[in-house]
């Protein structure tokens, strides 16, 4: 009898013993596991803010702090010592971006908060 959506449940409930052959030993479980996470797979988001002197909480995310730009180097060192190799910086600037004196009046993003934080993280 071919399986279709009407009789698949009946077939699974008629089993005398549930199929657990892939869960019997640690070696088989490791071979067929779907997801493995390590510290190398994680990316830590960092919120860097200009012109603040102390850490501020991000209200929408409990336990997450906005880091003053002047403390970023110390935080990056602490994160690296914890074994986390990747960070993503989010720059929060209170200074409005104005077109710099560049050809065509384009924005000079290289001087912004996020760009300076990224340069510091790469060191």
Helix content: 25-40%
Count the strands?
Answer: 4
The pLDDT mean sits at 75
* Largest sheet composition: 4 strands, mixed
| Structural class by helix and strand composition | alpha/beta
The string of secondary-structure elements, in order, is HHEEEHEH
The fraction of residues assigned to DSSP E strands is 15-25%
Rg, Cα atoms, Å: 26 Å
- The number of helical segments is 4
Amino- and carboxy-terminal Cα gap: 65 Å
Gross morphology: elongated
Strand order of the largest sheet: 2-3-1-4
Low-confidence stretches: none
Can you walk through the features of this model?
Pathway: Porphyrin-containing compound metabolism; protoporphyrin-IX biosynthesis; coproporphyrinogen-III from 5-aminolevulinate: step 1/4. Keywords: Heme biosynthesis, Lyase, Porphyrin biosynthesis. One of its GO terms (molecular function) is porphobilinogen synthase activity. This protein is of the alpha/beta class and 123 residues long. It has a domain at 48-122. Helices cover 27% and strands 16% of the residues. It has 4 helices and 4 strands. The chain has helices at residues 8-13, 26-32, 72-81, 113-122, and strands at residues 43-49, 56-57, 65-68, 86-92. Strands 2-3-1-4 form a 4-stranded mixed β-sheet. A hairpin with a 7-residue loop joins strand 2 and strand 3 (65-68). It is elongated, with a radius of gyration of 26 Å. The model has no long low-confidence stretch (mean pLDDT 75).
């Amino acid at each position: 009898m071919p399986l279709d959506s009407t009789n698949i449940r009946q077939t699974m409930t008629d089993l005398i013993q549930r199929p657990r052959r892939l869960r019997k030993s640690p070696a088989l479980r490791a071979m067929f596991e779907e997801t493995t996470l390590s510290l190398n797979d994680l990316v830590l988001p960092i919120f860097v803010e200009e012109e603040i002197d102390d850490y501020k909480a991000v209200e929408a995310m409990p336990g997450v702090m906005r880091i003053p730009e002047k403390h970023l180097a110390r935080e990056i060192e602490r994160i690296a010592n914890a074994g986390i190799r990747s960070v993503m910086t989010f720059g929060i600037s209170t200074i409005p971006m104005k077109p710099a004196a560049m050809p065509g009046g384009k924005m000079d993003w290289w001087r912004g908060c996020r760009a300076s934080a990224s340069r510091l993280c790469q060191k």
